[in-house]
Amino acid sequence: MSIQTGLTANGTTNASTLVLDHEYNEISTSTSAAYACVLPLIPHEKQYKLVNNGDYQVLVFPSAPSNGSSTIDGNASYCLANNGASVTFHVDTSQSTLASGSGNFHIHSWRSFDHSGHGIISTAASITLLACPRYKTNVVALGTVAITVTLPTPVSNGGMIVDVIKSGVAGGGQDITVSSTANLMDPSLINAGVVLASTEASTSVVIEDVASRGTTLHLESNNIAWAGYGTSEIASGFSVA
């Protein structure tokens, strides 16, 4: 088996120069500013395994032939969580003659399987998550300053689960705003046993500074919007906007 480890993701698009051209590929560095990699243009193996040990998610792109097309599970890219999450890709190739007679049209159809693990992103700064529906992602909010966690659009992202967890002490100076590009669809929030009023039009939920350490907001995309729930033992632990 051919192995490459200690890899660094670079770029954010299919122009990334990190090519996963070994049977086993292990990324050690991935950030919210540089998180892309690409599958090989000319696959020499039938299967390619990827493990992400970076601090952020990884976006995997297929390399498209100049005379052809390439997809992963029928899509333009694949998102892999961090924290040692892994996936294996299998490729089927085919070709057909162009009607113009100017050559062959090559098709690379990549399929993902053997998905494993979940993401843990620890951050003291605002962060935007990638759409990563195959993996649950925990966002652990660090530090003592206000931050915003921005969720991806829920459309075409059904099943993605995100837990946002406050790690700081109550009154430590940290408000955590969780925002969405679509309404949060009536999050069910309880403060000290009292259910907040219906908030179907809300686009953000705040875990307030007064909330206890470990207060968690659970969110799940239903492919239309984000649903959520959370419980705080403090009377004003959650608020909505």
What are the main properties of this structure?
mainly beta, 7-stranded mixed β-sheet, Jelly Rolls, 2 domains, 241 residues
Main sheet strand line-up: 10-12-14-19-20-16-17
Class of secondary structure makeup: mainly beta
Instruction: Please write the string of helix (H) and strand (E) elements.
Output: EEEEEEEEEEEEEEEEEEEEE
Number of strands: 21
Beta content comes to over 45%
Task: Report Rg.
Answer: 21 Å
Helix content: under 10%
General form = elongated
Specify the number of helices.
0
Mean pLDDT across the residues is 89
Oligomer: single chain
Q: Mind describing the biggest β-sheet?
A: 7 strands, mixed
Count of discrete domains: 2
Unreliable sequence segments: none
Terminal CA distance: 53 Å
Summarize the structure.
This protein has 241 residues and is mostly beta strands.
How would you describe this structure to a colleague?
By secondary structure, the chain is an all-beta fold. It has 2 domains: 3-116, Jelly Rolls, CATH 2.60.120; 119-240, no CATH class. The protein is 0% helix and 46% strand. The strands form 4 sheets. Strands 10-12-14-19-20-16-17 form a 7-stranded mixed β-sheet, with no helix packed on it. It has a 6-stranded mixed β-sheet with strand order 1-2-4-8-9-6, with no helix packed on it. The N and C termini lie far apart (53 Å).
